[in-house]
Specification:
By secondary structure, the chain is an all-alpha fold. The chain has helices at about 1-5, 10-20, 20-50, 50-70, 75-105, 105-140, 145, 150-160, 175-200, 205-225, 240-255, 260-270, 275-280, 285-300, 305-325, 335-360, 365-395, 405-440, 455-460. The chain contains 19 helices and no strands.
């Protein structure tokens, strides 16, 4: 999760070092998130069949190798390709961490574990800019990728030593046609959004990309309806609570984090802050998210899931709208702090209950699929958020040229950021209201409840049983 946003504070120096364009910088962000989103559900099926710990370790090894390639990349194209490979490894890791947690903890400890997992997951995306700023300023932008090597070594050692292997349905087939159709649809939609913002919405390439995304989505639906073991059982989406939770996962990630990318460009390119200072500007979100998730996670697990999730989304929206109201041509970096703190409170409130709520909204035999789906929609939300908000940002900056007076540059950036935060805030508020009205729970997400009473039920809690 750190690697989703760790590049934010490094983007200006990365652009200088590689001669990268704005669209290339967007793909450095989106190549990773998109690859992760596209393969999460397929990775969940592979983990059920071949072993969750085994797939986690394979993903960890690929993540390490891809991080090394990112750190040594000679150009923007190589970096984007390596980031996509990183995303493939991350998909294997992300698809297996929830069932590995379910297998490792029981009873009340499981609720505490999920609270810490959710708080850490939310804080990780927010703390990425801080860590990226420190490494970029005091070492080099390449260090933001190379730092993964010792961390993956430690994670691999702990996994081998302390986690036991677990499986789901060993006879399960991996839905390759469904995975390909989903990947094509998500990739074409993201590319179409970026191209539309850069070249116009009536440009032939833009229209072709968006049409291709629609065709691939239709193909995905047809494949999933006929597949004996689909990536996503579309009947789950007929459950209002489950469908609303998937939408909430996508919109939470799209509203909370992508605009940090463009704020990072503003505080460095316009305000002249260093990478460390740019990262520290986002620290309130990280701290609030971590504190609320870690210390309040157990309490949050006891509530009906629509309450913390809906309220958390409303807080994310309130924080973004507060930033939108305060930003102006003469604003400084401190203007962001109150809004980011409120948004961080919302992230820490919503994130710990999201995955357990999705598990509770699906039948036990579809728990593994539900876990993969909620994580997929989260990462897809980030990828689409980067692309969609990027169109608003580039439109506001259209017409700026070298030599433009600083007041005009500040005004253009302020306009762009105001649009981004306003859009993010409205999206989060709408998602929060939707969750409060649609999602229904019996009082607790289930993550902290007693351990399953039988091996068959235990398997159902972490994957697809036979």
């Amino acid at each position: 999760m750190v690697d989703v946003t760790i590049v934010v504070s490094a983007l200006p120096r990365m652009a200088d070092g590689l001669g990268a364009s704005f669209s290339a910088l967007q793909w450095v962000m989106d190549g990773y998130a998109l690859a992760m989103a596209a393969l999460l559900m397929a990775a969940g099926s592979a983990a059920d069949r071949f072993g969750r710990r085994r797939l986690y370790l394979a993903g960890l090894a690929l993540f390490a190798l891809a991080s090394l390639a990112c750190g040594l990349a000679p150009g923007a194209g190589t970096l984007i390709a390596a980031r996509a490979a990183q995303g493939v490894g991350a998909a294997a890791m992300f698809a297996t961490n929830t069932p590995l947690l379910m297998a490792a903890y029981r009873g009340r400890d499981r609720g505490i574990a999920f609270g810490i997992w959710g708080g850490t997951s939310g804080a990780a995306a927010a703390i990425g800019p801080v860590l990226g700023g420190l490494l970029t300023e005091y070492l080099n932008w390449r260090a933001i990728f190379l730092v993964n090597l010792p961390l993956t070594a430690v994670a691999g050692y702990l996994t081998v030593r302390h986690l036991r292997e677990s499986h789901g349905d060993r006879e399960a087939r991996i839905d390759i046609p469904g995975a390909l159709a989903f990947t094509l649809s998500a990739g074409a939609l993201t590319y179409g959004l970026m191209r539309g913002g850069e070249r116009g919405w009536t440009e032939h390439g833009t229209l072709a990309s968006l049409a291709g995304a629609a065709v691939a989505l239709v193909a995905f639906v047809l494949v999933e309806r006929r597949a004996p073991q689909p990536l996503l059982d579309l009947r789950l989406l007929r459950r209002p609570s489950f469908a609303a939770l998937m939408a909430a996962a996508l919109l939470l990630q799209a509203a909370a984090f992508p605009y940090l990318t463009y704020m990072g460009l503003w505080v460095q390119n316009v305000l002249g802050l260093s990478p460390v200072q740019a990262g520290l500007a986002a620290l309130p979100m990280a701290l609030m998210s971590l504190l609320v998730g870690a210390f309040g996670g157990r309490t949050l697990q006891r509530l009906a899931p629509q309450l913390p999730l809906g309220v958390g989304l409303l807080l994310v929206g309130a924080g973004a709208l507060l930033d939108s109201a305060l930003l102006g041509a003469d604003a400084g970096w401190a203007t962001l702090l109150p809004g980011l703190a409120v948004s961080g409170l919302g992230v820490g409130t919503a994130m710990p209950v999201l995955a357990p709520a999705a598990l509770g909204a699906a039948p036990p035999q579809r728990a593994g699929m539900a876990s993969g789906a909620v994580n997929t929609f989260r990462q897809l939300g980030f990828a689409l958020g980067i692309a969609a908000l990027g169109t608003l940002f580039t439109h506001a900056l259209h017409g700026l040229a070298p030599g433009t007076p600083l007041p005009a540059v500040r005004a253009a950036y302020a306009t762009g950021l105001t649009r981004l935060t306003l859009t993010s805030g409205l999206v989060a508020v709408a998602a929060g209201l939707m969750v409060l009205m649609v999602v229904r729970g019996a009082g607790g997400t289930g993550a902290g409840q007693a351990a399953p009473s039988s091996p068959r039920t235990a398997v159902a809690a972490g994957g697809r049983p036979r």
